[in-house]
Amino acid sequence: EASETLSETSQRSTQILPQTSEEPLPTSQTLSSSTLSQTSSSTSPQTLEKPSETEPEKRNEWRGEAQGAELRAEPPSTEVGRETQNKTHIQTQACISTTLETPLAPSAPALYPSLPTLEEGSLMQLHKEALRACGTRGPAVLPLGEQECPLSLEPVAFSLEQLSVWEPGGGMCVWVEGVEVCAARFAVLARQEGHELTELLQNYWRCRRQLTHAHTQLHTHTSDCNTTQNRLWSFRDEQLTLQGVCGDQSKVYGYHRFQQADFSEAVLVELRKLFEARSELLHQKVALHAYTALLSRLQVESYLHCLLHGENTLSHTLQPSSLLPLKESISVLFSFTRRVLDDTQFQTDIHLWLQRLVAVLLRVGGSGEHLYLLNHLLCCSAGVGKWAAAFLQIQVLGNASGVQQFMQALAILMSPVRHRAEFMSHMKPCESQSATASGPESGNWTLVDEGGEEDEDPESSWLLLCEEDLISLLSQFPFQQLFTHLLEMSKKGVYEPKSCSSQKMMRVFAFASSLIELLAVGLNTYDSARYRQLVKRIGHTIRMTVCYVSDHWAQYVSVAGPARPRTISLEKLQLEYDHLFLRAVLHVLRNKRLGIWLFMSEMPYGTLSSSMLWRVLYVMQCAETAAPDTLNSTDNTYTCLQALREPSHQERFEKWLCEVNSSDGISLLTALAHMAMPTHHSDPTFITTIALLVFQVSYVSVSTRETYSKVGRELLAAIATVHPYIISVLLDRLRETIETVGMVALYLSKELPLFLWRPSPEEVCVIGGWLLQHPLSAVENSLACVLLEGLDWGYTQDGTLALPSSLHSEVALLVAEAYQKYLTDKPYNGLISEGIKQVSYLASVLRLGLSPEASFSQWAWQLLLRLKLHGNTQYPQAAWSTPGSAPNPSPELTHAPNMHPVLRAVKAGLPIGCYLAIAMTTVGHSLEVFCTEGVDLLKNLIQSQHLRAAVHLLDNILPPTYPLSFYLLKNTQFVGCVQLFLQCDGVCPQGVTQQVTHRVAPLFTGGTYGDMVRLLNSVIQTHVVESSRPGRVGPAAVLEFWLGILTQQNLWYRDRTVLFLMDQICRSAFTHHQEECVQRLLYQQHKIALGYHGDRGLLSSLVGWIAGNATPSFIEGQSLSGEVWFAWLVLNMEGMFEEDSQLGRCMEHELLSDPNLSPDQALKKAQQRLKLPVAPSLQRLQVYRWACQALSTPPDHPLLPLVWQRFLQLYLRQPGPEYGLDAGGCIGRRFFQGSTQAVLLRDLRQRLQEVSDFHHAASQALRVPPTHTPSQGEDRPNSPPHLFLTSPQIHTELVRLFGVFAVWLDDETLQKKEVYLPSLPPQYDPQRLAKVMHKQQVCVSYVSYCIGG
């Protein structure tokens, strides 16, 4: 009952501490996102259960108890400029240090080596001298109101002792001295040999051992009983054999096998004795020891209950003396955790009781209790972090002394542990155990250093702390709360750097310096292979601290304007930040186990001053070649500069890179490259030095370039991306070392961001010299090609050229001169150049295996096509003006001296000369000169298979000539050039299209369009769009020009290439509402075609028509499945001819007049009545043409609804009332009464179902839109059609539309007699049906949506 009561009381008084990990801090200003994420992941303290929380006392944030001491000082006044307050603050610090210097109890020697630079005696002496100087000569730093940096003197950085004055907590010296004070108090309080609780726990432990021993005996007796019981019965196999004689006198035999069991009386007696012994053991010893163990445990519980519920134990206002019994009991419990315990239950009870007492101590205790518990944890055996890490609870936010607790606890954790050997004496292994544990069968590991020697003493290694435990304790420190307090974020986590003053900034530097120094103590304390991961955690925290301060300093500089009043100048603050950074770097460089170079590559160099960057650069290069103590000896920037430029220094650095591990060397070079990234104090000399250093190591030095060439290329590219002028520096250095670097220079140049580079005229001359003065196989020539290829020859965001137009022209002439020098006398085939895929010059040389001449030819043409040589490309805003109106007049080909290489190439008949003559001179800028001279040059270019260059020229020449297109349309040579172009890159070779029809030609040629035809189509489409802008010629002029060009070819409608271009032109006409323009031109061509069929005259056409041949049409066959846009306009045009000739109306009248008349007979009567010399054949009638086109149009084509609409308008037409006759139903059914026409009608109905199914499936699964333009669409008649429609809503609407069309086409009642349309059910859509019967548009909205119009 007492146990149950105590348990219930404990449960009622136990609550959960709040989680110490914070939510992400919302900030109004951006810090380092990577640092914030790393902080939250690396510092995630555990929680501990304790009774309840108390309200934090309202104290000064920077003042509090000095590690549990009773001495308290009044917080200093916040007013600035009062000297008396400053003196009081100094005296308070002196008193605190005097208190901390009390004689300490003797302690065991430290297990870890002391920090050489932070020896206790020297630190105390320095601190005393500083305080004595402050008392006699005034403070090291003037009061905040009187601080001024003299303008005539250069500011000097504060020392650590001087910075401690800025830190209200006392600084590094106070934290280090506090470690000894806490250790001395802990040593006195932690020894509780004769404590009452000790006797109770020993009694309980003894009872538990007896109970365990009894249980072991009981288990042994039970095992013996089981073994004896198995011997009680013995089994053996027996067999009986029987024989007899059958009626036939045959002998028979039978066998019976069985087991026989024998009972042993002797074993029974033995078993009875064993049962009696086990029963006696169970009822006597086990029950007795279980009772005594439970009674002993209840005694411990009763003692703890009285301790926790005694007078004033749970009170919120306790004196330190009243916590003494509680702390003594905790020490007793901790002492049992330092013993070898093989009883799991006893160990669990100890941990449970510790958790209860520690929770109470944390709730009612002060700041010193955290340090007391931390010392206990550091003196525990391995594994303490798993069950006791939550005992360390430090709260910074909302706690007046939280910062002091944090820093003092961190100082204890980072310092060597005192008295651990004394407290762990019970855990020391004996000699026999040590000998056994060191054998080969033990499985124990021995840590060795890089040299293969043992890293630690085997005799004392058992005393060392476990790395996982230290990491668990370090994770309990809320660094994120500390930085939130340090940066003065609000309670809601809002970061406001504008509220930071220069004095607050100095306090941040001072506090960060102390924090870094404390962490540096840990780097030296745990400098062992055992603690490699812990050291990395500490180093990560140092870098995180520097990153936070760096971001905060950058924000302060950005918001601190020159007119903002401040007591400390920006120069002084920058100096303090620089030295803070330098101290962190030196601490990192002194620790070789940290992976220092990878660590240094992640440091924030962006806020350092230029002078400090030089010092850090020198220190980093000397870190491995100089002694650690000499790294901080150089304070002069000029001295660092001179040392870096010494050849011997460079040689030592390269020698070290050869000897060091490649990963460390790569990390060092990466760190150097990060130093050259954008900074607030950008120093071109420093950046140039870094770039040249990386270049020297990666490409010039023979001993290191094999290892570092790849990473050096990436780092130089990263530096050049931020500072493009570095490319000029590297080019100048390459010119000096090109023989040493060799072909590797090509790889470097290919990686550099040349598109950001703006070369000077001198640098262009250097590149030109490499191109002209060295053969094609030389490195200099290839390097020049790579450099010119990588420049940005395009436009900027505002539409102007990225590089000056004069540079474009200069490079073009340079390439022309080199082309003639290297390729004039060499056999060259333009087809090879056009057939090679567009790849870089370097790839063509290395991967394609081309000859130098072929690679250079390809490179030259690719570069020339990228250059903006024509006036319309140099000034795009004037491209559509009158020819010759460019701002800079074009030079004459025969008169301009600089055009001499081009003129020489033209006379030699070189295609490159023809291209440059048209692109750069008046030949391509004056319409008159182009018609007389330029057309021949263009023809030469096309005949040489340089079709891409021809398309580029047409793109530049045509825009200003569209208003004067008559001159080019009547120029037979120009028209012949276009036709030659189409024949060279079209479907059918030259001459084939005039011999076979469009159905046979694909069988010979494969039916694919060339890339140049597609490129020409893109030019046409672009011109149509550009011409529609305000103030320009308009799309009609462009469409008329290209229609006039394409239709001048004989039998053009049989050429698949021309049809492809015509289809795209018709699509543009439909999109820009220029259908009438195109139809008018096609109408004129159609009239001519009706009179002349091929090359025969009118008489031959009439004879062919009488013989049954089809009437001439631009659509060969009944329909077109690929060129639907062209078919749409052609059929509409032929419909206009049918209406103008009155043939359709006359046929309708004949059919209505005689119900028995066939369509063929009606056609003949109509021709006779109208006296037409030429009439279309029956299959050329509009109703049949639209029906066939509806069958051939792909289901996803945008024009499909309109095609079906036109067919239904003809089929459902009821013309009876127009002729004064009765409405005899739809006229369309009369055209489909024959067997052939009936099959066509059945196919139409089936096609409607297929189209509906297609769009239903498309509405369920959205299709991805094609990545190419529609001009890259239908290549082959048998290829699957490309998809135009992508929206599921439009597919759903089309399913409904085609469903209505199917209902109309299937209802014969609707077609045979006149129906009152409003009476039809909704599935007929009567309103839409009425519009179709009256030839009104009902599907234009679908098409507009599909094509984006």
UniProtKB/TrEMBL annotation:
Keywords: Autophagy. Belongs to the EPG5 family. Residues 1138-1336 form the Epg5-like TPR domain. Residues 1-88, 432-456, 1259-1282 are annotated as: Disordered. Coiled coil: none annotated. InterPro entries: Autophagy-related_EPG5 (IPR051436), TPR_Epg5 (IPR058750). The gene is EPG5. Residues 50-64 have a biased composition (Basic and acidic residues). Residues 1-22, 432-445 have a biased composition (Polar residues). PANTHER family: ECTOPIC P GRANULES PROTEIN 5 HOMOLOG (PTHR31139:SF4). This is Epg5-like TPR domain-containing protein. The lineage of its organism: Eukaryota, Metazoa, Chordata, Craniata, Vertebrata. The keyword Chloroplast does not apply. Residues 24-48 have a biased composition (Low complexity). It comes from Oncorhynchus tshawytscha. One of its GO terms (cellular component) is cytoplasm. GO terms for biological process: autophagosome maturation.
